[in-house]
Amino acid sequence: MDDEAELRAACEARSFDQATTLALERYGPEILGLLAARLRSDGDAAEVFSIFAEDLWRGLPGFAWRCSLRAWAHRVARNAANRYAVAGARRAARNQPLGGELVEAVADRVKSTTLVYLKSEVKSEIRRLRDELSPEDQLILVLRVDKGLEWRDVAMALADEDLDEAALVREAARVRKRLQLATARLRELAAERGLLAR
Description:
Elements: H1 3-12, H2 16-39, H3 42-59, H4 69-87, H5 101-117, H6 121-130, H7 135-146, H8 151-158, H9 165-192
Helix pairs in contact: 1-2, 2-3, 2-4, 2-5, 3-4, 3-5, 4-8, 7-9, 8-9
């Protein structure tokens, strides 16, 4: 059974703790990596990941499967990061345990193993180049290139709300064009720094 089918089966069986655990095990490392790249702080990324894990757990009962759970999880993480950025002093109040001990343990394991991996020097150089792109371009690059999401899933992950079919097709086309422009900009930056032959 593939990842999405197994996750969907757990949700349909109303085993939301199991579905959350499976989703965190399968998609947690890539989402934590995305958060670390976006927030540029392992501590902030770990805190937002905890918020994301709780949001995922709370949101699964209402997830309608209009896109992949992977794309939806990226949107949940993006929304958690956005809330974290504006929450300020309210952050401490969010430090409450997740709904289940198993879910919390999986989230902690993903955080501890993924943050060590993200610290390599090569990744730091690539991150410095990507930092010069807009936050949306960085997110598109990570979701499509690094994580391999389909265009429709990238569009859905970036959307602030569910999109109808026509809007989803338009947004996917817009995202494809943004990625094309972003990769051209990255090549230009790499050439300026002598990382590529012109």
